[in-house]
Design goal:
Layout (H helix, E strand, L loop, with lengths): L5 E6 L4 E6 L4 E6 L24 H11 L4 E6 L3 H12 L7 E6 L5 H18 L5
Parallel strand pairs: 1-4, 4-5
Antiparallel strand pairs: 1-2, 2-3
């Protein structure tokens, strides 16, 4: 796998897809949790919040898959993306400055997702300060 400046992560509680890309090529890493969570609903008059706890090993594997990318877009359909960001704040705070944005994105195809990420960074790169 080549080192790319940009990376995009699509994450839910069942998997994370990490794409490292440039204008012409893309590398994909798929990360699965060791014990994927089931969808849990809170029931009235029951103990507990109805939420599962964070999967620290899964989030660390996603962080490892991000690698040395300098600009990272984090996306997903629900709250796993925000849990990943909270995990990064707590356990890998040096990575936060490389997070370009966090967006809600449903379940796109890989090609549609990479196209979305390329459009995002094309616009974001035009708006950022030029590097020497």
């Amino acid at each position: 796998m080549t080192n790319h400046y940009h990376a995009a992560v699509w994450i839910d509680h069942h998997e994370a897809r990490v794409f490292h890309f440039n204008a012409t090529d893309v590398d994909e890493i798929v990360v699965h949790p060791e014990h994927p969570t089931r969808h849990i609903h809170h029931k009235a008059n029951s103990i507990g919040s109805g939420h599962t706890s964070e999967d620290h090993a899964f989030f660390q594997d996603v962080i490892s898959a991000i690698g040395t990318a300098s600009a990272i877009l984090v996306t997903g359909p629900a709250n796993a993306k925000t849990e990943l960001i909270k995990h990064i704040h707590r356990h890998n705070p040096q990575l936060i400055e490389r997070i370009a944005a966090v967006e809600t994105v449903d379940h796109p195809t890989d090609g549609a997702f990479v196209a979305h990420a390329r459009r995002y960074f094309r616009a974001a790169d035009r708006m950022s300060a030029q590097r020497p």
